[in-house]
Specification:
By secondary structure, the protein is α+β, with helices and mostly antiparallel strands. About 25% of the residues lie in helices and about 30% in strands. It has four domains: about 160 residues, Alpha Horseshoe (Serine Threonine Protein Phosphatase 5, Tetratricopeptide repeat), CATH 1.25.40.10; about 220 residues, Neuraminidase (6 Propeller), CATH 2.120.10.30; about 90 residues, Immunoglobulin-like, CATH 2.60.40; about 120 residues, 60s Ribosomal Protein L30, Chain: A, CATH 3.30.1330.
Length: about 700
Amino acid sequence: MKKIVVLLTILLSYTALAQNIDFKATNFKDDKDGLKKATDAIKAGDGFFKTANDALFATQSPGLNFKKALEQFQVAQKFNPNNALNNFKIGACYMNSTDPGKGISYIKKAHELDNACDPFMDYYYGYALQLEGKFDEATKAYTAFENNYKKADNFSKFVTMHKNECKNAKASIATPIRAWVDNLTDLNSEFDDFAPSISTDGGEIIFSSNRPNGHTANEVGDYDYDIYTSSSSDLKWGKPQAIKGGVNTTADDVSNNLSFDGTRMLLHREDNGQMDIYESELKGLNWSDPKKLHFQISSPRANEVYGAYSNDGWSIYFSRDNATRSTGFDVMFSQMQSKIAKDYMAAQMLADVNTGFNDGPIYLHIDGETMYIASQGRASLGGYDIFVSKKVQGKWTTPQNMGYPINTPYDDFFFAPTANGKFAYIASNRDGGKGGYDLYKVTFWGEEKTPSIQTEDYLLASLIMPIKDNQVEAKVDVNKKSFTVFKGKTIDHLTKKPVEAQIEITDNTTGKIIETFTSNSATGKFIITLASGKNYGIAVKADGYLFHSENFDIPKGAADNLVDKTIELKNIKIGSTIALRNIFFDTGKSTLRPESNAELDRLVQLLKDVPNLKIELSGHTDNTGSATLNNELSKARAEAVVTYVKGKGIAANRLTAEGYGSSQPIASNNTADGRQENRRTEFKITGN
């Protein structure tokens, strides 16, 4: 008998827990004051909730209204946690936040207490199931909502979108791409960490976060977004630091895109009630106060966010909203008319890229042929997904989903790849993060290999997706266009201190200057990305120093190259010697080849810039062959250079020519590379 009573008590307790309790006086006779506070909070929250939902229907930002509503509903929740409608509203607020997973338990509880508590119950119940990966059940819930909700408004497109997402997610998760996606725990916090942008060599990252920053929190307790930076060392990211300079303010400062050389940055922030795009430049260790971009980009009539540089530096791509349409943000671009004036033409919409939902952020790959774009529309797996589009015959193709595990039923957006295409950085609020949006690293496996045994040993390991067998996975489209990252720093030869220098990159085949830029004044650092299949000349000039030059080949089809060079600049003083690395002769002859002209003209310009400079031109060989012939050849080559320089108007009494053959090696003659180093033309300052 006692067992029956205990079981009955448990059953009654469970029934009571599962019972919907309304906010009525009859249910709370002993706490009328508490009931009034709860109902007043619900009434206040309902106003914010309606405003937020109206914006959602119009594909506009709800602002802080869901958060304001959530604060009020939580007051009522503490008083009565078993009301279906209040649980539903809390769940809906969370599901429209940057941490939607928090809403799942509230929606499921509301559904258990009273599945008819709100006309949108089936919709949000479907969303909860979708986030849990229960796509068939989610589709049934969406269909039930679709059958019952007959109002003539703009919301039906959301239902259709979610049903398609469930279908897409099932197929994509069943055939994942060859990649790992790992949480960057060293960088993330319990707050929103997003908007990553990576340097071309993958060594520096910037991102935005609303972690506590010493500013005053807003009315819902959130801090404004600031921009942070971190450097990678031994595969570990350093502690994030607020970016130096005048970038961060008490407004939301959201990083958008780093230029490929790392000296400029696009960001957006609010100004007089609307979002605009700004640009900041790195000056030494500090970023300059951002300047609002040209009115064709930062329009006074709309909100603009997520600016991105084109590969050639002539265009800015960005997202713009339009209050007259319910299509959210659209991707647009504006092309510069003059790099000197920095004036832009009227912005154009990318019709083949945009959807009826929010489109952007955007990233333009350095190859000029690949665009990564985040979108809520198209064949998404849920929320924002990352897509890729290719430029074919001047037009961008229809964006294609990058697949699972890059994309999930949650929001996955931003895509910042390294130059070699092996890694990328994204932001996501997927399950398992630290909270809100987190930063993730994508590692592409590359081409599939046929295993030779039952299981393979892998050199790489993933934190969350370890390889267990040799199951064949679907291929991922990894960018095939190869680049070399040329990075380094310019320093004084004697003091080893940084020197700010102008750097020219020349295509030695055409003699055309590809790029001119300046190394950082505080660190001497520089970085640029070069296409493969060419021979390049690098010339480095700084006031008061001899110029430095060298050349190297990047083989066609080369991939994952990195040239990291410290360039030591020498003062212009008597006795200083500099090698001319981009002077070329026909084999065994003293005939100058045309690709030498760019280097020779730089030497001529130096002599014109320093009128009192006198130099000795010297030729050097390796130790192969006859010493006599080597001496004669080296002297003839030095004289050929003198003849060229004199022909450009330099007085003969400022020039001498000497041939040293193999008598002054700078490297071992026992290797091919060493012999190549020894075959050189130099000049030495003999008067100044």
